[in-house]
Amino acid sequence: MSTLEVVRVESPPDSLRNLVKERVRDGWAALDAKPADRAVPGTLIIVGIAGVVAFVAAVLSIRSGAAMAFGDAQAHLTIARRVTDSLSPGFSQLGTVWLPVPQLLLLPLVQSTTFWHTGISGAILGGVALMGISSGVYRIAARLGIRRFGRLVAVLIILTNSSLVYESTTAMTEPTLMMWLVASVAGLTRWTLSKRDLSAGELMVFAGLPAAAALLSRYEGWALTFVGTLVVALVAWRRRKDVKYAIKMAFAFALWPFIALSWWLIYNFAVFGNPLEFANGQYSASALQVGLPNKGFLLYQGYAGLTIWTYAWALIQTVGIVVILLGLIGAFVLTWRRGLDNHALMVWMLAVPSAFIIFAMYVGQTVMSNDHALPAALWNNRFALSALPFLGILVAYLCQSLVDKSRFKRLGLSLIALAITFQAAWWVVDLNHSAVFAEATASTAQKVDSGAQAAMRYLGANYDGGSILIDESGGILPEIGIPLREYYNVSIGDLYLEALADPVAYVRWVFMRIPTNGNGDGDRGDAIYGAVGELGSFLSNYEEVYESGPFRIYRRIGN
Amino acid sequence: MASLCTPARSFRVFVVLALTLSLSAFSLSAANALNGSPTTANGVIQLPFAQIVTFGDGADPTILRLPVPAGLTPVRIVGNLSSTLKRVADVTAVPTPATVSRPRVTHVAVGKSSVPLNASLSQAEIVDGFVSLALDVTDPPDEGFCAAGDPGKVTLAEIALEVSGEPVTPTSPANFVDTSTEQVRVVIPDDASSTQMSAGLNAVASLTAAFRSQARVRLFTSKSVALEAPLSPIRGRLVTISDGPEEVVTTVVTKPGGVPTLELKGSGAGLPRAASALGSMFISLADTPLTTGLTQTLNQVAGLTQPLEDLGAGETLALTGYGKSIGSVTVPQAAFGGPISAAVVNLHATQTVVPAEVLSSVNIFWNDFLVASYSAISKETALDFDIAIPSTRMRSSNSLRFEYTAVPRQGGCTGPVGLLPMGLYVDTKATTVVGQRGQSLDPGFPRFPQVLADSLPVAFSTGLPTSAAATSAGDLVAGLQTVNPRQLDVSVVEAEAFIEDCDTGLFIGGTAEDATALAAPVRLSQFRTFDGLALEFGVGADSPVSVLEAFARNSCNVLMLAAWAPTAQEAGQVDLALEVARYPVDSEFGWSALYGSMLVGLPDRTEPVQLGTKDVVPQEEIKEEYRPYGLWFAVALIALVIVGLLGALVRRRRLRKIRRYVEAELRAQDYDTPNPESTME
To answer: Which domain holds residue B323?
Structure first.
């Protein structure tokens, strides 16, 4: 038999144009290449594209001030900053209201006052998260055997989602959680589907470590760790039918999260004297939610139908009805073709945070509201964003099924591409189609209408030293822009109480919120007002220098 | 700029609508408390009035205008004067207009304690059935023309008009209601048909539209009217509706010493139309005791462009003089024949030339929000521009206010001698408000009455007995009519049809089933409000409750009156329903004072409580309505499981098939390959 040898003659690149063409061709081919052991060709391309999207979004968001719209975003920045910049610095400033990883990641970034004040630090972390989510989804799709079209559809679903892209320009924690979620599942997918028998150590590093980070980012990470451990045990059992092997692998996956959890419990105990301070302390989520039912929220508690309705509308207004419907079809196709085999298990792992959110709502531990909920409001719809990677992979799987076995391949893929384009256009036509953006807009409007923004800007522009007494620990301090060591607030503990008792001796400036009239919820003003607002001694030592709505700024008379 | 001094006399307030109000509000106000019953002593009839007049703050004299029943001669106006002024006030009371060469002036010195007023009157001073008294405080302070006025005021209360003679009883529909009528009771049979009920409600609407600020019109059945306090023959009127021939017969009858009664007898569609004509401007044509064929068909078409004159601004709106002058016009959405979401005011006005020595400005407010400001420092005398009113500023009843300010640059309150008087003259015919059809208000009371578009279907369910249902419906019709510029065309429809056809209208006596069928936001069962709001505890659990609820259902808007109670307390719930129904028409500010979407009557409250739908914790029934979504979610999950199982089954069968095929292939290969040990010889 003769051998036909194909000799490829490489012609040197005689122009930049040829070089670019060659690179594009190679990149295009890489996006369809099968994954190697560790490397997944095309990952860097996706990282680059996501980076560009994140950068452009960050510029727009920071310049418009949208990056600082959420009070929670400013609070995360402040918590990170006050670890080093405070009258009482230290890691105890991390507190227990939120899990610590997002703040720890922000810690180096907020050392620059400019980055902290403008929100650039949050945009940097969020941009990295967006790149991580996009590349993670791409890698999961590649390892599941999905080819280029499906992979790109999954990435497009991520990068054209205005809610996620906007959130990634802020210091909110959802993008961080999603990054760790996707990273952990990508690692799990590799371990599960690799032809080579991967070691427990590799499982620990590539899946367990991101799971640990997710566990200390948001409580959805706890559900991910728990379910992930069970899934690892099941996959290991399927592989070798050996209980010891299954336990070993499950332990390997759960070890880093266990260490992280232990550290967190020890931290709570060391700082607050209660290892469960984050769960039942004064500033825990459950404590902060105690009064919500009487204010009309958490009405879905115990009502499955109302819970599903509320969550569904949050999903529609953050992820989009098109993606949901395509994902639903993808779910049926996946289940039909694969049941609950190892491939399918990896996909369903991505749904764990969503299932956790629904469960948490049903038991009254998570508050969420939108314009279809009872009552109608805009609150925390961004929690539904954690379903985006799951739905993206399902749509990618649907695409792959059409490629594999359908005579309607071209038509089907065209329709999917059109639908995704339509969904993307929907978000762009009016940014307030996104409940996340609408909530941010409402939050900004509330700041302006209440007079808070004007008061913040006045203080930021006119502060000339002498310290500030304020009953505010995070939600507006970055926007004011004054270093945190200038503040006497509740985060510094006893020193704050001393200043509250005798402001003259401690502070030159006082920022106060007085009671508002006609407010049905019995607004009594803030703690500063409660302590000194109507004291003659206070008013004889301080003069009012600014007033905006219920906000008052006082300066000590004399010096 | 020199400080604006606002002395009492320089601060002129020309409130056009208030002027209209001053002519009538201090006479009879049907929306407020009813006046007391007349008494007779020594041949003199004393007609008490409930209103209270306040004057003496430096404004022009206040006019007190009282109606005189036909046939009676006014003798005097009496009352009680009290003062919060720091000095002894010399109060003058002058009958106006003066009809004798020397006006009769009554002076009363009012100090720290109250003193009686006794201003004599004569027949000659009756104008259009009214006598008027100009009240003023006549001794200004000596501190100077521009000094601030003495803070305080004089109040005239316990007002009564003493008259003599015999009242002329009405003899025809034309003169059935006169200026002194303050109560009209419309009576239908106990077992009234829907035609008779419709006639009764149309009579209420018609008479309220015609005499809205003067007479309180209510609907009763024969049984329930007997339980009411007797009507005054001078101030009260009865309208009875009963069965009769197809051509409606209208008769006015007055028994000696009895209350004048108009009887409407008829049947068919003519009966409601006849009742609808009772308040018509053409009723003066029905000037015989017995009339047949009385009818009115309402063909009202209201356009989206309304001149200020038609909105009640009068022929001219003139703001003149130094200081600040104010003129305002009420712009109800109902004037446009339906809801409007936004508007444009096309202003056409003229101002006097502004000398260099004077600072002048025109500020225009919509619901107290500044929408236009014009500094009149120019030679332009014509003001001709459009003012856009956004939907965010739109209410059910809106106020358009013009403020004209003119002050001399060097201060003071009048210009130097020789300066022309300042003034802004708004052309009320040319100045229009152009509405943009649409809805900008949240569902609730503020959407009424404009969503009715002058047409009011009323449905009756079984939640209230007929008499209470009729009276409640009549009170609600009257309440809506007082704030609707045109007469409402009332029709009675079947409750089932109302629910099915999604009518916009009134639903009386709703039951729990009706509330569910209408998808009312608050159902007829116990509920509670959120923290810190009007109701501290839950309601409807162990005491009766009545609710007037306003809500939107798809594209229609419903006003539902319902009441419920734990068993054996039915009387309590009926009384509460009557109380809630009459609140909008009897309260101080009428329907306009209703906000939110619920009026809740409770046995331990003197007044109903106002709530919004958002104030109420969604009830179990509301939350349970979302159950199907949970079921569908479960169905989807089960479907997934079934698909998974089926898929597994199919894969297993395929695998078995492949295995059998492979085994067969292998067997076939074995068969074809010769066995080395076998011999074929």
So the answer is: 305-437
Whether residue B249 is found in the same domain as residue B311: no
The answer to whether position B665 is within a domain reads no
Structure tokens at B67: 């109606």
* Under 8 Å between Cβ of A200 and A248: yes
List, for residues B575-631, the tens digit of each pLDDT value. 999 999 999 988 888 888 898 899 999 888 888 989 887 777 788 888 888 999 999
Residue of B nearest to A329 (CA): B640
Q: Using an 8 Å CB-CB cutoff, list chain B residues near A328.
A: 636
- pTM given for the model: 0.75
Is B618 found in the same domain as B525? yes
Whole-number pLDDT of residue A517: 62
Both A376 and A514 in a single domain? no
Could A312 and B532 be called an inter-chain contact, meaning their C-beta atoms sit closer than 8 Å?
no
Interface of B with A (CB under 8 A): 530-533, 614-615, 617-618, 622-624, 626-633, 636, 639-640, 643-648, 651
- Reported ipTM: the value is 0.86
Which candidate in A301, A308, A333 is best for mutational testing of the B interface (most B CBs within 10 A)?
Answer: A308
CA proximity to A66, closest of A513, A432, A471 = A432
User: What does residue A114 show for φ and ψ, rounded to 5 degrees?
Assistant: -65, -45
What distance in Å separates residue A348's CA from the closest CA in chain B? 12
Q: Are residues A147 and A40 in the same domain?
A: yes
B contact test, residue of A343, A362, A374, A524 with most B CBs within 10 A: A374
Taking a C-beta distance cutoff of 8 angstroms, is the pair A248, A197 a contact? no
What is the structure's pLDDT at B8? 38
Same domain? B261 vs B331: no
Supply B346's token pair. Answer: 């096309």
B494, B198 in Cβ contact below 8 A?
no
Query: How long is chain B?
Result: 681
A518 touches B: beta carbon within 8 Å:
no
Determine phi and psi for B400, rounding to 5 degrees: -105, 115
Whether pLDDT at B646 is above 90: yes
- The answer, for A295 touching chain B at a CB cutoff of 8 Å, is yes
User: Is pLDDT of B289 > 90?
Assistant: no
Instruction: Specify the number of domains making up chain A.
Output: 2
Q: How far apart are CA B333 and CA B19, in angstroms?
A: 22
Q: How far apart are CA B84 and CA A13, in angstroms?
A: 102
Q: Give the angle A143-A146-A152 at the CA atoms, nearest 5°.
A: 105
Name the packing angle between helices A388-405 and A120-143 (round to 10°): 30
Domain containing residue B100: CATH number:
2.60.120
Which chain A residues are Cβ-neighbours of B633 within 8 angstroms?
Answer: 304, 308
| CA B102-B105-B110 angle, 5° bins | 165
Is the separation of the CB atoms in B106 and B138 below 8 Å?
Answer: no
With CB atoms and an 8 Å threshold, state whether B646 touches A336.
yes
Q: Are residues A504 and A540 in the same domain?
A: yes
Per-residue model confidence as pLDDT tens digits over B413-433: 555 555 667 888 999 999 999
* Mutation target among B392, B530, B609 for the A interface, most CBs of A within 10 A: B530
Task: Find the helix or strand (DSSP H, E) in which B468 lies.
Answer: helix B466-482
Name the token pair of B44.
Answer: 């003199």
Residue A286: which pLDDT band, with cuts at 50, 70 and 90?
confident
Give the residue among B306, B314, B598 at the shortest CA–CA distance from B444.
B598
Decide if A306 and B617 are in contact by the 8 Å CB cutoff. Answer: no
Average pLDDT over residues A373-389: 92
Residue B34 confidence (pLDDT): 66
3 state DSSP class of A222: helix
**Calpha distance B408→B543 (Å, rounded):** 65
> Would you call B185 exposed, middle or buried from its count of C-beta atoms within 10 A (0-12, 13-18, 19+)?
buried
Token reading at A191: 């371990």
